[in-house]
Amino acid sequence: MGSLIIAEKANVALRIATSLSEGKVSREKVGSSNVLRFQRDGREYTVLSLRGHIIELDYPEEFSQWKIDNLKDLIRATPVENVKVKGLAYALKKLDQENSEIIVATDFDREGELIGVETLRLMGRRDGVRRARFSALTKYDLVQSFGNLAEVDYNLAASAEARGIIDLMWGAALTRFFSVTTKRLGREFISVGRVQSPTLTILVERENEIRSFVPEKYYELNMVVNGVRFAYEGNPIKSREEAEKLLERLGKDGKVVVLERTEKERTIYRPIPFSTTEFLRDANRIGISVERAMAIAETLYQHGKISYPRTDNTVYPRTVSIKSIIGALSGSYLMKEIEHLTSNSRLIPSRGKVETTDHPPIYPTTPLKKSELKGDYFKIYDLVARRFMATVAENADILDTEYVVEKNGLRFKYTASKALRRGWMDYYPIVYYQEKIDPGFKVGDQPNFSDSKIDEKNTNPPPRFSQGSLIEKMEKELLGTKSTRHEIIQKLYDRGFIEGNPIRVKPLGMAMGESLILNSEAVARPEMTAKLEQEMDQIASGSKKKQEVVEDSRMILTTLLDDLINKADKINEKFYETLRLEKVVGKCPKCGADLIIDYRNDSRFIKCSGPSNDFFQYLPRTGKIEVTDEKCPVCGLFLIKVIRKGERPEMRCVDSKCAYNTSRETFGECPSDGGNLVLRRSRNFTRFIGCSNYPNCKVTLSIPQKADLIPTSKKCEVDGFPIAIFKFGKEQVEQCLNPKCKSRSSKR
Predict the structure, then answer these.
(1) Residue 42 backbone class (left: φ over 0; alpha: ψ -120 to 50; beta: rest)
(2) Short-list 329, 466, 436, CA closest to 391
(3) Phi/psi at 298 (nearest 5 deg)?
(4) pLDDT band at 705 (very low <50, low <70, confident <90, very high)
């Protein structure tokens, strides 16, 4: 009899098998499942790879129709467990009979523990079970893990199972209630969730703060001395009149007197080791969405490049050898940085406030050449590697030199700044420090001032959340877990509640959020979800039973549902009132009723909300739409502004077929078949030039995404393609549209 190893994913199974077998691995099929077999120390091992959760929870068939009058029964119903993979039960039974020992080697976290227990339950196995716990998929870590097997943590698995049952219960009941109440069913259903909804209301409240913010003017008086900008000590100044009096008092020329020169050293502390939240925040800062960053980190972990990316820990445990990691990285593309690091640092790591015993912070586990990874995969690995280096580098020491100068009784300040030791800032890409030139004045010097001015400014509203800052806010409010927060944010995008980054709340999100805030504090606020998260921890620690927590949640949801049913009419009224107001973008040119932007399937359009509905126009599929007061010079309808990230705002007539649009998007005759060469967008919304006779003519021309293109009536003498004007900011080039044309070799 041998040992059966249960792995969560195929590539993890392969790494386990090759690491423990010295590479001598055979592949077989058991039923419809693939297994790996090898021998170690005279014992036969079999590795079975799963595909994540093998059990899917759902409600019985009798609840397939969405109705409000059966929601309480749905809450009390026991979910049905369905095996997701066909033939898996047969394979598990057969492998169970062949092996005397089962080793669970799924991810070492709540969900991984539950996947292992689900598998054992399906096998009917409780005896002869051990647990392999590892945080990196290197040969060393895996050999150590399988040499020190532990017990399965059934309490940890129970906490994950409770979360699954509770999330299904809340999500199903509340989604059905709000969808039926607002009459949005089918593909337009309203998604409501235990964690998702309080996260949405955080964004809605921030959106309302921004909209209700009333900016206040203030003024700043500054003057330039020897090329350095000094600020008046009395800034900010409340009124222009006061500022102008001070400017007049200052005078237009003359000398200033240096009154003070004060030096002060300060420290910019190195960052703490990467927890999941810290990692996702900084990945988002370098332009990668939290959902994609987590997916890439998972892939890098499964291929042995970095340690396990789902962790709250911000303290490297003693089992992580800092010197070994540094030594390995010295053979990577970071060789020069590592050489500099080892020469200038004691290699003593920083420590965060959170120290756990399950997984270490995220760190690189394998040195790489720069050519081994590309695109965002390289960016994520590089971020992890450089963060590790930053945590073992020295703090940065900064010398600030503050100068105070005076003229006509008015005092001005300026602070020069210089890094005495850059420390960790030499290695990490996210650094906000900038040196400021030191004018080198001494007390008593009387330099000339060359310019003085008043700057008018406005106070700013609170900033919108980025994906990274929202992850931090969710962690603070105990919304979700390190493993689920990025998924919750992505759901808000997928459900049409939010867009962009920084995050803007779309009309549907505002309608949903306002309805929740007004009618259901329990669903809208994080307190209820935070309480349930704490109870999950109590299940994991053994101080509470799974069924106790599930039943408690069931009672809370039943009471909440009673309240919501009583407010159904108010919820429906508030939802549609907000939705209508959010969609209003102007007045109908025909009847004066509100014009609204609406969506259907993959298209969006602008239409009249009046009883006759006598205005309807499709809109561009991408970009933020702003209705302007300007009239179209061709047809007299209004112009809209289309704002897309990375492109200059585009002014268009609201009538998509108006010559105002088509004349600027048609560049001339296609030399292939005589059709028109027109501006188009691909499925991923990048611009290109294509023939109007597509698909019969497949001529396509790539164009710079950030350039404005202006048609001309000219034709290229070399290849016959039209000539256009390419505008790059203030610079413009007149050239052939065909990027492969030889005439463009000397152009931009």
Answers:
(1) left
(2) 329
(3) -60, -45
(4) confident
Q: What is the spatial distance between Cα 649 and Cα 628, in angstroms, rounded to a whole number?
A: 12
DSSP 320: S
Tens of pLDDT, residue by residue over 335-380, are: 999 999 999 999 999 999 998 888 999 999 999 998 999 999 999 9
Question: Residue 463: exposed, middle, or buried by beta-carbon count in 10 A (0-12, 13-18, 19+)?
Answer: exposed
Max intra-chain CA distance, the chain:
96
> Tokens representing 267?
């420290």
pTM for the whole thing? 0.81
- Token readout for 285 is 């800062």
SS3 11: helix
Catalytic annotation, pick one of 308, 316, 381, 403:
308
Would you identify the CATH topology of the domain 162-212+466-574? Answer: Topoisomerase I; domain 2 (1.10.460)
Residue 747: predicted pLDDT: 52
Architecture in CATH for domain 2-50+85-152: 3-Layer(aba) Sandwich (3.40)
Residues 6+ apart with CB under 8 A from 702: 688, 739
From CA 716, how far away is CA 736, in angstroms rounded?
Answer: 6
* Helix (H) / strand (E) containing 518: helix 507-519
| Annotation: CATH topology of 276-394 | Topoisomerase I; domain 4 (1.10.290)
Pair of tokens at residue 535: 């109870």
CB atoms within 10 A of CB 6: 27
pLDDT at 544 > cutoff 60? yes
What does the pLDDT read at residue 463?
Answer: 93
308 is catalytic: yes
Q: For the segment 376-424, what is each residue's pLDDT rounded down to a tens digit?
A: 999 999 999 999 999 999 999 999 999 999 999 999 999 999 999 999 9
Torsion of CA 496, 502, 507, 510, to 10 degrees: 100
pLDDT tens, position by position, 97-145: 999 999 999 999 899 999 999 999 999 888 899 999 999 999 999 999 9
223-269+397-458 fold: Topoisomerase I; domain 3 (2.70.20)
Q: How far apart are CA 391 and CA 349, in angstroms?
A: 5
Q: In terms of Cα–Cα distance, which of 145, 118, 116, 121 is closest to 133? A: 145
Instruction: Please give the mean pLDDT across all residues of the chain.
Output: 91
- Write phi, then psi, for 704 (nearest 5 degrees): -60, 130
Can you tell me the mean pLDDT for 212-229? 93
How many other β-carbons are positioned within 10 Å of the β-carbon of residue 394? 18
> In the chain, what are the domain boundaries?
2-50+85-152, 162-212+466-574, 223-269+397-458, 276-394, 588-653, 678-744
Q: Are 672 and 678 in contact (CB under 8 A)?
A: no
